[in-house]
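For reference, the entry.
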Amino acid sequence: MLRTPKARRTAVITTGLVATSLLAAGCSAAGDDAAAEDTIVVSTFPFGVEEFQEAVIDPFTEKTGIEVEVETGSNADRLSQLEVAAGDSGIDVMLISDYYAALGQESDLFQEVDAAKVPSLDQVADFALEEGYAGPAYSYQLNGTLYSTEALSADEAAEWDLYGDAAHAGSLALPDISVTAGQLMISGVGETYGDGPYDIDTALGTLGGWAPGILQFYSSSTEVTNLLTQGEIVAADSLSGFATDLVASGEPYAWTPPATGRYMATNRAMIPAGAPNADGAHQFIDYLLSAEAQTKSAELVGDLPVNPEATVPDSITAVVGDIAADPVAAGYATLDPAELVPTRTDWVDRFAREVTAG
């Protein structure tokens, strides 16, 4: 859970005579501190940066006077940079997917967000504040099936059995375990056919049985959309965000949640250990979670909002319907990082051997 740390001790400054040289040094240091307080560095995903700038960063700077420098990269690369920097990365806020956030916490790369400094935490959905993370979720991603409405009905696309159906062999795609949808798929299959979301034996056995009929185990959203629009596949297990542009285009594509085994991933706002401007970082997270920022981010970036007071645009509801209003009520659940982090290496190795090797 997000915890409020002990109040910092207040230093007592005694007035006295100060040498001219020390005074000059003090003025210089104060100037440097003031400059640091007016800037934060935000590390984020490499896509949708211009839209995020317009939706969140520019309004935040206008409200607070704090300038934002943006760095981008993949989850894995940015986490590795934190490890190498050893507490001196210069990053104040890192926006990162939940698994990598949990992985970083295992190595003490993140500090707890101070709930007392983020009033907007009182406004967000409970799942955004779940135990196990040092920072809140600011958006989430739903797993389901992206499909051709000319080839399948919504009911057919919602069933996991679709991926083992011989009638569609060679025209289906599934995610690799390396991408976000991959773990959500494994957990959905484990729940549907086995004992729960962490039943890896059942999940891999089932996926391995389907593998001969799977055209591709993809590793990027571009692969999925290209395969679908080029007519090479009729369906793919996919995050809902992959469907937004396709559905908006008016072409015969849709997305549906699975009938069972519904899981979602979250993107989280984390403060690295040793962040040079932690106060500015807290202000940024507070604004990021506000209804204003969440509404604009949903509209311009396509992020599903965690603040229920945010307005969800038609472009998103056209894909997920009323699920965006309350994904938990719609049957979606998040995964426990304590179950995933210790097993990740083994599961990745097994997926390669038991599912994609053939």
Remarks:
- The two ends are 42 Å apart (CA to CA).
